[in-house]
Amino acid sequence: MSWLRNIVDGLGTGQPACLVTVACTKGSVPREAGTSMVVLIDGIGGSIGGGRLEHRAIQQARAQLTAAGLPGPFLEEVVLGPQCGQCCGGKVWLAFEWFEPSDLDHLRSLANAPAIASKLNGPKRPLEAVDDANAQCRVQESAGEITLIRSAGKPVAPLYLFGAGHVGRAVVQALGRLPFHVRWVDSRPEMFAPPIPDNVVPRPALDPLTEVGRAPSQTYYLVMTHEHDLDERLCEQILLRRDFVYLGLIGSETKARRFQMRLANRDVPGLERLTCPIGLPGIRGKDPAIIAASVAADLLQRLEHPQNDWSKNLGNATC
């Protein structure tokens, strides 16, 4: 869930709220720049890493939430060793911003903004939309003003998952809180069993092959349907597109060799980019939950160590 959604939900309780954001970092720290939490008088949403740093920030936020009148926003430097007794060894700059229920309409109006800017010194001013689709989190200073610019939501990668069987359902749950926007495709509508995570869109399709043509470039694909012939045709269509980040096919090395041989006979390019079996090497369990955990971890590794231009902007932001 994005920081903007968190703060809107918090204010929806009728209480004032404080948004605490890791604005930038230096050295070893618990969480990356852009991480945030919302502090209410009687609740917390999100986390900036736990431990004494988080406890200290919560105390600071609540001291102001229970005082008469809310302060203006500010940026605080915290050295983790001396100030928090944490052995990470680095430092973080925390942005504190206070909001009241009367801010709700304005915050909701920013939901589709590419990025949002807020002033961190002086009196409180409304957040502003910024036309910067690549912004993740950065602090800039100009003419004595300190501005925090960040994406309105978490960066997400498009992922098309073909198949809603036991493994497909387990993978959907494993990806539920990860930075992927999942389009879940199957020809059997009854197979989309709830609960379905917020970042997953079920797509019943009589012909799943048509969905390959609808996918954006630089998409991640997982193919695990109930028919081997359909798996093969999907792999062929994806390989012919050439503009994908990752293509994973459920199955054994034997299945991979057979598919590659058949596809090679049809002059399909890029067969070396087909990943089968899927998941992390060394994890051999066949239980759907084990496969799903292995696949999710492998996808995260690929996302954090990209080999393509599109995902280079998804790295951790620092000052």
Largest sheet: 6 strands, parallel
Q: From the structure provided, what is the oligomeric state, counting identical versus distinct chains?
A: single chain
- Residue-averaged pLDDT: 88
The parts where pLDDT drops under 50 for at least 5 residues are 308-319
Structural class: alpha/beta
Helix coverage percent of residues?
A: 25-40%
The rounded distance between the terminal residues' Cα atoms is 23 Å
Proportion of beta-strand residues: 25-35%
Alpha plus pi helix count: 9
> Helix-strand pattern, N to C?
HEEEHEHEHEEEEEHEEHEHEHEH
Alpha-carbon Rg, integer: 23 Å
**Spatial strand arrangement across the major sheet:** 12-11-10-13-14-15
Write the layout of secondary structure elements.
Blueprint: H1 3-11, E1 17-26, E2 36-40, E3 43-46, H2 51-65, E4 74-79, H3 80-84, E5 91-99, H4 104-108, E6 115-119, E7 128-130, E8 137-142, E9 145-151, E10 157-162, H5 166-174, E11 180-186, E12 200-204, H6 209-214, E13 220-223, H7 228-241, E14 246-249, H8 253-265, E15 274-275, H9 288-304
Parallel strand pairs: 10-11, 10-13, 11-12, 13-14, 14-15
Antiparallel strand pairs: 1-2, 1-5, 2-3, 4-5, 6-7, 6-9, 8-9
Helix pairs in contact: 5-9
Could you characterize the architecture of this molecule?
This protein has about 325 residues and is α/β, with parallel strands linked by helices. The chain is built from 9 helices and 15 strands. The strands form 3 sheets. Strands 12-11-10-13-14-15 form a 6-stranded parallel sheet, with helices on one face. Strand 13, helix 7 and strand 14 form a beta-alpha-beta unit.
